[in-house]
Amino acid sequence: METLKHLSVKKHEGNDVPLLADADSAKSPGIKHWRESSQFFLTQRWKNLGLSFTLLLSCYSAILVPAYLPTKQLTWTESSTEDYLDILNRSAALLSRPCISGFTKTKLQKVLNLDSLLQIPVFLQNETRHWELAPPLGLLGSEGTLAQTLRVLPHSGLPSVPDRCRRCMVVGSGGILHAKHLGAHIDKYDIIIRINNAPVFGFEEDAGSRTTIRLTYPEAASFLQQEYQNTDIVAVVVFKRLDLEWLTSIVTKKPLSWWTKLWFWRDVVSDIPLQPGNFRILNPEILSRTWHVMQNYGKHESKTVPTLGFTGIVVALQLCDEVSMAGFGYDFKHPGSLLHYYGTVRMDHMMAQVVHDVSAERSLLRGLVKSGVVHDVTGAL
């Protein structure tokens, strides 16, 4: 040991130098911990990446794989294809009987409080009426627009139908009509009433091919031009003033402005390949009086409106000596069954709606069928 002033150092013997191992051993414990943490998070990141990939693959499989698997065809009920022969026989029996003039009106006056409906014109003929209610139960606030629309409609009466005892068939959109092969029977009726955009094209075997009156509103009118073939009348049910403007546009072939189109809750067809004489406006008084009658059948007074299917029945009661219906009835016991004879919408969709009081309508329809006023060909009520 050599002393230099107050400092002392140790001399290394020979060629001794500090080793790297000695230097590592002198580092702080924090560095070692940092290295271990880095390795942990790197490993965990790879695990998370693998898990994310697995989840993504599972999601794609859940979406894509079922599309390539065979699926069960939606039906009205499990027995819907087993009893169609009975339905055909029932329909054939009705058509083979002679038509009785005034049969429906006589029955209706005896059993139900609907005879007041028989005095109402089915289609609007002028704009002089004083309306107390707004659409759809009246036309209060739309008188000016109504006058403009009526001026472009050359006719307001019925189409040219045989002036004899008339039979009506109201074709509902229910799934019960699917695979029943009633099309040829339906086409034999004098007046055939259809609802909204219920298709004919491609469904002739079950639903028939002719249409005398199609009740609809703008958002429910079909975009397919072939659906208007063999159609005598498109009768617009007015739910708002814009519906009258739409009808004027359809008849005059003058398109609506983009601003007006924005106020419809869904895209509307801009052209229907029919002549002005093929269009009518349904008398809102029909919906109003029908709504009042339905209050006696509902659980409580509501602000709902009649379905167009039930409205079609009321129109048929006014126009025909005998009335039949097919495709009516909701199978709420099977929420997964078809709501319509076309498409894939299921019954639970109708169960969730609040616009129509279907329970009241079902009670009223059952009363009409039980009393013999209306014949239920498909028998789903």
TrEMBL record:
Write down the EC number: 2.4.3.9
Q: Name one GO biological process term.
A: lipid metabolic process
In which domain of life is the source organism classified?
A: Eukaryota
GO cellular component terms?
Golgi membrane
Give the membrane topology, semicolon-separated if more than one. Single-pass type II membrane protein
Its EC top class is transferase
Q: This protein is called what?
A: Lactosylceramide alpha-2,3-sialyltransferase
